[in-house]
Design goal:
- Helix content is 27%, strand content 29%.
- The protein is built from 29 helices and 63 strands.
- Strand 7 and strand 8 form a beta hairpin.
- The chain is globular and about 130 Å long.
- This is Coatomer subunit alpha.
- It comes from Sphagnum jensenii.
């Protein structure tokens, strides 16, 4: 059995495969229906409207529907796209065992414990026929795939076959009266549209299952007599063919395999058995240790089965479907059925070579597992699992006719694996002695080599070399020298694919691809979420591989992507340019056309073959966001600019690569304030003042413009800014500009105009303007500000600029290949724009009347009465902004060195753990992760924790006095030998060890009776756990255990504090109930003893002697001091003499329960409840959608994928 997928849940009673998608429905004994993607291993949806167990479920063949039947006597038809029940069919009077859609007609057949089978029309939503005749529970009923037949099995020990041909012939609706009569007769006696064709009697006890063969006139049944019976039928009769014995308990289900001549059955004896239909013998048995099997399902088209058992379901295959093959030059050698065949890639011709012997064993999975071809000797080695691992050596005759008629003798031997290692030598793995036997072509041992590691498989690695696979690594072993040449840590490797020149190797494991060179030096690793199936090297050195549903590529640097999607899995044999050769699961050769442009483009870019890149770009075969994102990521945003027509994207790319020319052109087209602002920031970073000035002018950002003129020493334009501020009636703007200019008289004038005479006087007196100061003294009279003595102060005057600053000197670099090839497309000439309405060099400004009062628009005119409006002179923009007619590839230009990626951004990109996102400062993504994983909605308690994480993972280094400090990200696990180019993950302030210390303190505080303080400590632990990060699976389990402890104690302490609430002082019944509930929380023995003593005393004082005796018994089961033990025995004696309770409590110690975290009431076993997705506290259904009162973080009843606190949990 090859297990593909397994779930853990309540008992699974019904299963159904989707006919097209990799989905399976499982109906549970708990009343829930689960929809799983068995390929990805994820739960897609759950449906829980049934009350009680759901025993039957079935997908419709073509519509987005499924039907279910349960113990609530209801049949429900669901739409899984709409995620709801469409309607309910009522009519059965007892449990419904199975339901099934008809493959063509709009019918549903249902079997019930009311001893009837009903056929429903799901379009008209009515029962169209009732099949009566069984006199006990009908355990199953199903339609025949091609004929108008129904088979049913019943506990009356019979299997019945029903003819429903009359149902199909009913085409005209009867008259109303006749229809009413027919309906009445149907309800009373059963319909006349379905008649019993055969009654199969032979089982000694009740029959649990019967099913048709999909194509042959056969029926198989399983019963409580532990037997599986095979029946044959014709047009007139049906008879028993054989009985299959082997199960040791009731046979639950039995079906025919859809594609092989086998029968599969399962039983309450905890086994699945596979039977050969022709030999009528058992082939294989699979057992579970504790779980009884209840149901089987077979995929209608694929070699996939599913079985439901007591604790979940398992999806499995009986046989490996990957054909054994090997490629030698231009020829493929492979096994199909019992022939060794060849396939010529160039001619695309398939020929059988020789016939190979059929395996003698009757077990499954006996077909060859691997094939090794020796071109020198024209021989093949076939390895299989027969006899625990064996091989066969075939020498292919030279005079083979190509019809596969010859069957040469083979040389056989035992071994876990066998591969050719030289012209006339092959290696056989002996696992028992962990050694390799080197044999010649006569199958004689010539040498024995002990292996350096415990080896489970060997692979060819060049002449005289082997790759030895262990659990977690691969070793390159030289058979001649008996030495280790290389070693590489890798997850369990299943397949090895060498490049044609044997320089590179791809190691394929279940969910990863490791690329290494011939010495096993790691190049890159690619991780996949679903199974990797096969791979082959492209002629250019790109590794092309397949997963279950994609063809993908992997470049030498580890970049990967999708080439195309697949409907069914394939196994690649060769890749040649845009042609991919492969084998499917039926062993048929297929040729698939692929588009290699994307990975060829990336490879050329990686290998710096820019002429090829340019050729691909000019042919415009590439487009899409993925290519643009790739070019950005690899540092070629200027190349990405060529692909982009959208101005917003062009602007973003231009800003990223520092191309202010293109950025200005795009900003003109967009004309958005935010774009001009970003352009100004980038130009300022480059020191390109002309562009900065232009951007500030476009956004009318006067404050920034003034400061720009100040730092560049442009006094003339600063004076004009003063006039503009006066025109705009901007008092603070005028004052700032006057301050920048050192214009004292202007500042005094501003103070006077705004009514600040004391400030005007102080300014005049301080700067020695005595005439103005005297005039202001007279106006102020006696209210004069105090002027500090001149010997203790000095004037702050802006220094006069010596040289007016132009653009900063930039780093000179030569034009790149692409800039020369593309030219400065997108560069803009600012001349025209500046001349129309920007700012001029020699422009004098004056205030227009009534300006700026209505809409804030500024009108400027020259003092020499020239026309109104902004009139701009030429901006002295740098030459690189002009559009050039021809830009030679060798010309130079200016650029600033690009900044690196911030460490915090790397942390966010490489981690999916909320704690590491919070440490990086990405609080929004951390909150999204916690919401998705744990259903957390209330982040207020986590605010301080997030801030502590962020602050603890960052520090700063002081620099020179005039420069800012350098921020530094702190990484955990840093060492001096670590590569500076590989960033570690953030250092975290919260660790598992610190939480364990907090737990000890909380325990101690609880023992001391400081319940409020203890509750605060436990809740603090609950708030920290979502952001804790650990390294191993063991620590993950410890974190989950800690979460459970903190939740239990938080709930228990809330119950105890509620009991001590003054509001309950006059309610002794509620106090006693809460004390009783407190004892049922999961506590440490010390605290459990204290809670039991408290509850015993409270109940005894209330004269509830029976309940008090219950607590006394529980108390005596623990280790007690003599004094406490004596008191408990005394209470027990009183309770046994008088086991009555004075007050009625909502408390039943014999019925297991959990306590609702909101209402503090018991939720007894079997009652409906909901839970918090984070802390798993249980609540009554009425609290759905409220905030969890235990952890105060998550919403009760919401969904969450589960706690993620370690990278080991991320596949």
């Amino acid at each position: 059995m090859l297990t593909r997928f397994e779930t853990k849940s309540n008992r699974v009673k019904g299963l159904s495969f989707h006919p097209k998608r990799p989905w399976i429905l499982g109906s549970l004994h708990s009343g829930v229906i689960q929809l799983w993607d068995y390929r990805m291993g994820t739960l897609i949806d759950r449906f829980d409207e049934h009350e009680g167990p759901v025993r039957g479920v079935h997908f419709h063949k073509s519509q987005p529907l499924f039907v279910s039947g349960g113990d609530d006597y209801k049949i429900k038809v669901w739409n899984y796209k709409l995620r709801r029940c469409l309607f309910t069919l009522l009519g059965h009077l007892d449990y419904i065992r199975t339901v099934q859609f008809h493959h063509e007609s709009p019918w549903i057949v249902s079997a019930s414990d009311d001893q009837t089978i009903r056929i429903w029309n799901w379009q008209s939503r009515t029962c169209i026929s009732v099949l009566t005749g069984h006199n006990h529970y009908v355990m199953c009923a199903s339609f025949h795939l091609k004929e108008d037949l129904v088979v049913s099995a019943s506990l009356d020990q019979t299997v019945r076959v029903w003819d429903i041909g009359a149902l199909r012939k009913k085409g005209v609706a009867p008259a109303e009266d006749l229809m009413r009569l027919t309906q009445m007769n149907t309800d009373l006696f059963g319909g006349g549209d379905a008649v019993v064709k055969y009654v199969l009697e032979g089982h000694d006890r009740g029959v649990n299952w019967a099913s048709f063969h999909p194509t042959l006139p056969l029926i198989v049944s399983g019963a409580d007599d532990r037997q599986v019976k095979l029946w044959r039928m014709n047009d007139t009769k049906a008879w028993e063919v054989d009985t299959l014995r082997g199960h040791v308990n009731n046979v639950s289900c039995v079906i025919f395999h859809a594609r092989q001549d086998i029968i599969v059955s399962n039983s309450e004896d905890k086994s699945i058995r596979v039977w050969d239909m022709s030999k009528r013998t058992g082939v294989q048995t699979f057992r579970r240790e504790h779980d009884r099997f209840w149901i089987l399902a077979a995929h209608p088209e694929m070699n996939v089965l599913a079985a439901g058992h007591d604790s979940g379901m398992i999806v499995f295959k009986l046989e490996r479907e990957r054909p054994a093959f090997a490629v030698q030059g231009g020829t493929l050698y492979y096994i199909k059925e019992r022939y060794l065949r060849t396939y010529d890639f160039s001619a695309q011709k398939d020929n059988p070579l020789i016939s190979i012997r059929r395996p003698g064993a009757t077990a499954m999975n006996q077909a060859p597992r691997s094939l090794s071809y020796n071109a020198a000797e024209n021989a093949v080695l076939l390895c299989s699992d027969i006899d625990g691992g064996s091989y066969e050596l075939y020498a292919i005759p030279k005079d083979t006719t190509g019809k596969g008629e010859s069957t040469p003798d083979s040389k056989r031997g035992l071994g876990a694996a066998a591969v050719f290692v030289a012209r006339n030598r092959f290696a056989v793995l002996d696992r028992n002695h962990n050694q390799v036997l080197i044999k010649d072509m006569k199958n004689d041992v010539t040498k024995k080599c002990n292996l350096p590691v415990s080896t489970s498989d060997i692979f060819y690695a060049g002449t005289g070399n082997l790759l030895c696979r262990s659990e977690d690594k691969v070793v390159l072993f030289d058979v001649q020298q008996r030495s280790t040449l290389g070693e590489l840590t890798a997850p369990f490797v299943k397949y090895v694919v060498w490049s044609s020149d044997m320089e590179n190797v791809a190691l394929l494991s279940k969910h990863a691809i490791i690329i290494a060179n011939k010495k096993l030096v790691l190049k890159c690793t690619v991780h996949e979420t679903i199974r990797v199936k096969s791979g082959a090297w492209d002629e250019s050195g790109v590794f092309i591989y397949t997963t279950v549903n994609h063809i993908k590529y992997c470049l030498p640097n580890g970049d990967s992507g999708i080439v195309r999607t697949l409907d069914v899995p394939i196994y690649i044999t060769r890749v040649s340019k845009n042609t991919l050769f492969c084998l499917d699961r039926d062993g048929k050769n297929r040729v698939i056309q692929i588009d290699p442009t994307e990975y060829s483009f990336k490879l050329a870019l990686l290998q710096r073959k820019y002429d090829q890149v340019l050729q691909m770009i000019q042919n415009m075969k590439l487009c899409g966001q993925s290519i643009i994102a790739y070019l950005q990521q690899k540092g070629f945003p200027e190349v990405a600019l060529h692909f982009v027509k959208d101005e917003h994207t062009r602007f973003n790319l231009a800003i990223e690569c520092g191309n202010t020319a293109v950025a200005v052109a795009s900003a003109k087209e967009i004309d958005d304030k935010d774009c001009w602002h970003r352009l100004g920031v980038e130009a300022l970073r480059q020191g390109n003042y002309e562009i900065v000035e232009y951007a500030y002018q476009k956004t009318k950002n006067f404050e920034r413009l003034s400061f720009l003129y100040l730092i560049t020493g442009n006094i003339e334009k600063l004076s004009k800014m003063l006039k503009i501020a006066e025109m705009r009636s901007d008092v603070m703007g005028r004052f700032h500009n006057a301050l920048y200019l050192g214009d004292v008289q202007e500042r005094i004038r501003i103070f006077e105009e705004s009514g600040h005479l004391p400030l005007a006087y102080a300014t005049a007196a301080t700067h020695g303007l005595t005439d103005v100061a005297e005039r202001l003294r007279e106006l102020l009279e006696d209210v004069l500000p105090t002027i500090p003595p001149p010997e203790k102060s000095f004037l702050l005057m802006p220094p006069k600029p010596i040289v007016q600053e132009s653009n900063w000197p930039l780093l000179t670099v030569s034009k790149g290949f692409f800039e020369g090839a593309f030219g400065e497309s997108g560069a803009v000439d600012l001349e025209e724009e500046v001349a129309e309405g920007a700012w001029g060099e020699d422009l004098d400004l004056a205030v227009a009347e009534n300006e700026g009062e209505d809409d804030g628009t500024v009108v400027v005119e020259r003092e020499d009465d020239e026309e109104e409006g902004w009139e701009m002179e030429d901006l002295e923009l740098p030459a690189e902004l002009a559009v050039a007619d021809v830009v030679p590839a060798s010309s130079g230009y200016f650029a600033v060195p690009p900044p690196g990626i911030p460490t915090s951004q790397i942390w966010v990109q490489t981690s999916s753990l909320a704690g590491e996102h919070a440490a990086a400062g990405a609080f929004d993504t951390a909150m999204r992760l916690l919401n998705r994983q744990l259903g957390i909605k209330n982040f207020e308690p986590l605010k301080s924790i997030f801030l502590e994480l962020h602050l603890a993972s960052h520090t700063s280094l002081p620099t020179m006095v005039s420069l800012p400090v350098l921020p530094l990200a702190l990484e955990r696990g840093w060492s001096e030998i670590a590569s500076p180019n590989i960033r570690g993950l953030p250092a975290l302030v919260y660790k598992l060890s610190s939480l364990e210390e907090k737990l000890k303190v909380a325990y101690k505080t609880t023992t001391e009776g400081k319940f409020t303080e203890a509750l605060r400590l436990f809740i603090n632990i609950l708030h920290i756990i979502p952001v804790v990060v650990v390294d191993s699976r063991k620590e993950v389990d410890e974190v989950k255990e800690l979460l459970g402890i903190a939740k239990d104690y938080a709930l228990a302490l809330r119950i105890e504090l509620k009991r001590k609430d003054p509001a309950l002082k006059d309610d002794p019944v509620r106090q006693a109930e809460l004390a009783a509930y407190f004892t049922h929380c999961t506590l440490q023995p010390t605290h459990l003893k204290l809670s039991l003593q408290s509850a015993m005393s409270i109940c005894f004082k209330l004269k509830n002697f029976g309940t008090a005796a219950t607590f006394a018994r529980r108390l005596l089961e623990l280790s007690l001091s003599p004094q406490v033990a004596t008191r408990a025995r005394q209470v027990l004696q009183v309770g046994e003499k008088n086991p009555k309770d004075e007050l009625q409590l909502n408390y039943d110690p014999r019925n297991p329960f959990v306590v609702c975290g909101s209402t503090f009431t018991p939720i007894y076993r079997g009652s409906q409840d909901i839970s918090c997705p984070y802390c798993r506290a249980r609540f009554v259904p009425e609290t759905m959608g409220s905030m969890c009162s235990v952890c105060d973080l998550a919403v009760v009843g919401s969904n969450g994928s589960g706690l993620l606190c370690s990278a080991t949990q991320v596949r």
